[in-house]
Amino acid sequence: GPVPGAALSLSDSTTLAAEIGYWLTPSVALRATVGIPPSTRIEGRGTVAGLGQLGEIKFAPVMFTGTYSFDLGTIKPYIGGGIAYIHILEKKDGAVAGLGVESRFGGVLQAGVDIPIDKSWGLFVDFRKLYWKTKATGTVPAFGGAPAQVDLNPSPSVVMIGISKRF
Fold first, then answer.
1. Residue 2 has pLDDT above 80, yes or no
2. CA–CA separation, 58 vs 35, rounded Å?
3. Dihedral, CA atoms, 138, 140, 141, 144, nearest 10 degrees?
4. Which tens digit of pLDDT belongs to each residue from 56-79?
5. DSSP reduced 3-state for 119
């Protein structure tokens, strides 16, 4: 049954990412983003805080978005949205044995700004908010091998800063 006051937290992750885009018009672009798979620790909080690290996952996020840019002269702010697929590559047990986490699709919203340096090169800053749901399962040896299941609704934020090259 449910454990009153139980909660989880996921650690922050940092990774390198690359984005490939195609401009349909001077204002509308399609973008695909991939990155080196980061890892995140799953920590117990609330009434299960004493269990410490419940497990760790390595995941590969892939995002496909469409954006609309506003030409303000020297800068081009943009907004957009699309889909993300979070593929779980590895699961490591902690206080939860036999940790299982499902790969799933979700939504993504984004806002950013392109700062052209010349006709080919530029800088960008991008903020994205992912919305996805997944399920984690396993057993808890500290509770006599009791089965554990949790519906996760993480909504991580992604900040990207980079250099762009137009061809």
1. no
2. 12
3. -120
4. 999 999 999 999 999 898 899 999
5. coil
Count CA atoms within 13 Å of residue 117 on its CB side: 10
Distances (CA, A) of 42 to 23, 33, 119: 39, 25, 44
Sign of CA dihedral 46, 38, 23, 121: positive
117 sits in the region (left: phi over 0; alpha: psi -120 to 50; else beta) called alpha
What is the tally of helices (H) and strands (E) in the chain? 0, 12
**HSE, side-chain direction, 13 A CA sphere, residue 45:** 8
In 3D, which of 90, 98, 92 has the Cα closest to residue 146?
98
Residue labelled with tokens 């672009």: 29
Beta partners for residue 84, in sequence order: 63, 106
Other beta carbons within 10 angstroms of residue 155's beta carbon come to: 11
Could you tell me the two tokens for 47? Answer: 């009434």
Residue 44 contacts residue 96 (beta carbons within 8 Å): no
Tokens matching residue 153: 């609704």
3-state DSSP assignment of residue 96 = coil
pLDDT tens per residue across span 146-163:
999 988 888 889 999 999
pLDDT at 86: 94
